[in-house]
Design goal:
Blueprint lengths: L3 H19 L4 H14 L1 H12 L10
C-alpha cells in the first residue's frame, strides 16, 4: 500500500534522477549548474532567508 509519504519520496527520487541526467551524471557540472541557479534566483533566495530568520517559515533552517 502506497502512502502520501511514499509518493513524495518517489517524486524526490525522480527529480534527483532527472537532475543527474541533465548534468551527465557529472557532480562538478551539477554543482556549477546549482551555482548558476543561485545567481539567477538570488533575490528570491534572499527573501526566503529573511523569512527564515524572522521565523516566518515553519521548519526552515538558514544554515
Amino acid at each position: 500500500m502506497s502512502t502520501d509519504c511514499d509518493t513524495v519520496i518517489e517524486e524526490i527520487r525522480e527529480s534527483r534522477r532527472r537532475m543527474s541526467e541533465q548534468s551527465g551524471h557529472d557532480v562538478g557540472k551539477f554543482i556549477d549548474e546549482l551555482k548558476q541557479l543561485n545567481g539567477k534566483y538570488a533575490v528570491q533566495i534572499g527573501r526566503f532567508q529573511k523569512l527564515c530568520e524572522l521565523g516566518s517559515v515553519e521548519g526552515a533552517r538558514t544554515t
